Amino acid sequence: MRKSKALWVGIAVWLLWSSWGEAEQIPIQQLYAEGLQALQERQMFQAERTFQQILDRDSTFYDAYIQLARMYKGRKELDRVEKLLLAAMRQDFGRVEALFEYSQVLHSKGRNRQAYAYLKKVLELEPETPAAHMGIGLMRMKPDQMMDLSEAEGAFGAVLAFEPAHYEAVFNLGKVLMYQGKWESARDAFRRILEGKPGNFSALYQLGILHYREGDYQSAVEDLQQALVTSPNNPIIRWALGLVYKRLGGYPTELDSSFRFTTIPPKKIPGLEVTLVDVAPQMGVNRRDLGRGSSWADYDGDGDLDLFTSGHFSGAALYRNDGTSFSDRAEEAGVAGDAGMGSLFADYDNDGDPDLYVVRDGWYGKKSNSLYRNEGNGHFTDVTDHAGVGDPGSSFTASWGDMDGDGNLDLVVADGVPGDGSPNRLFRGDGQGRFADVAEEAGVEPGRTIGCTLGDYDNDGDLDLYLAQFNQFNSFYRNDTEPGSGRVVFTDVTRETRTQLPLGGYFPFFFDYDQDGNLDLFCSELSDYVAVLHSKEKGRTRLDRNRPALYHNEGDGSFADATYGTGLGRSFGATGAHFGDFNGDGYPDIYLATGGEEMTRYEPDALLVNMEGKAFVDMADQIGVQQLGKGHGVTFADFDGDGDQDIYVPIGGTFPGDTWENRLYRNDSPPRSWLTLRLVGTASNRDGIGARVRVRAGERDFYATMSSGGGFGSGNGGQLEMGLGDADRVEELEVRWPSGTVDVWRDIAVDQHLVLYEGEAEKEGSR
User: pLDDT of 230-244, one tens digit each?
Assistant: First the structure.
């Protein structure tokens, strides 16, 4: 047996050596031709061995490097591909094959700027290279820090100059034109596809959406029905057709069921008396600015709430509340600035007026944030550099809070969402107007962080931190800071609290949804469009990962996942989220602003009414809130001072052509009892951020927490607006300040605005 085995080994060695020797005798060009023949015949092992033999004989043979690189690319062995292509370029940098292939490898590795540079080099050498133009067009149309729609349009046009029937280029050109709001040219592009490919459902769908958006509903019906013939039962097309028919008064009775989108009938809440009226046009806040963040505060000290908003491709607006309308004072106030994302008012210097922090857009590259100090005279001064909170990273949202209990506000900034390695920031305030980043020493890890929120989940008197990570497990940090230690310490408790979901987490916030005195946790999730539509048809999520997360605080340091038990086990395309009590019953409700980057995505916002802490029911349709997506930094605030919460929704898509008017829903519902509280800290930070409030009224307790941040990094305002249901008197009002001071007021009338100073509680009587 051993002799037989040895014999076969010997034969194998002889054959290998023999074939090697034969290869040495074959002219190298003939050997290369044999390698190509092996490729053509799908003899991959033989082809790989042949090209490697060529390089062993002649390390300058450029084409062998290219063929091997392409083979390894097909096997996704990108490191080997990169090594081969670099070797090829060392042999001849004037040939485009290696340059182009290397650009593809760089793109696959996320090194897009380098990939773009290599494509440009290809076009320098060979301007008539359609594949390079195509690559540049695809790269420049993507909504990230390299987006340049004008260049993308030119690139696809260049492809078509060489290959007029390149339908992928025509289709993407149509999309880019649509992204820029060039509707007529976009229609022409999609029709051009249909001339060569009648019944192409992608082109028909795009045309249908264009006609729907322009109000040409009959043409939209024709396009979408034809698309469904080509792609039967496609849920996205059926949903779009349903939206069109809704504009036309409903489905015609003769329409075949295969063309209909049937949703689970929305639940009705008997006796729900809520009226929300969009007054943005008459109030002067219906700007088309691709709205992102928003924040409320009385910046001018006149007793009513003013509004700061930021747009994606425009500057900011600072709307002063003039009673019957708003007027934009951003320029004269000095906060017009660049485009922004999240925005938060907070009195960081404890001087009695709200200052403003604006977070720039992390998806589109690194840009410094801005801190504006309120001078108390209607003007703000940019103190970003002096304060040290510029954070030149890819930041997205932020939250204010006193994390070390020294009476000065600190600042958390969520960073790194595009995966560029920008670390999260934890800016510790020194009380003198300056901040130092202590995130690393505090134990806060970097990630692809998009959302952040602060809240005292374990009731130990300090603020804990939750971070929502983009397509990663989320992070939960318990605050273990020792008072007076001069340092901040966080401990990662994500696993022990089991709060790492949802995997596609976006915007979190702490709130007490069941009013038991413990802070619960909600985190929204941006589900894909098909998952959202599945939920609309079936009433449940298709996959567990495609849903938000609602964690109930058990009061012992642990959480229970209450998502499914409260009716939230569905998919939402949430691009914004916040909470407030718009029906005044004392249980916080949730507004989910929905959407997605594609302009063809239309889904209604969700207005989730809290059913006494037991369930959430989407009442958007019953109430009449019918915004079809693209919302972001939604905020709740009583801008007219009548005791109920109004809702502001900044709206706008990813692309400059996807503009919508921002909305301000005035709450005209029948009155309920209420209290509006403005807290003034003395030993604590002046805004009282982190204070916990309990109101005893009508034989139940109502709980609220003063916060600044959460959701889309947007602020509901520097006051607590508490609905008290049908209570006619407040028996007791308790404030637990961040300093540890506990103040109690008793026997207070409802339906009033109160200013409560730390340490100045009265034993009896109203204030």
Answer: 999 999 999 999 999
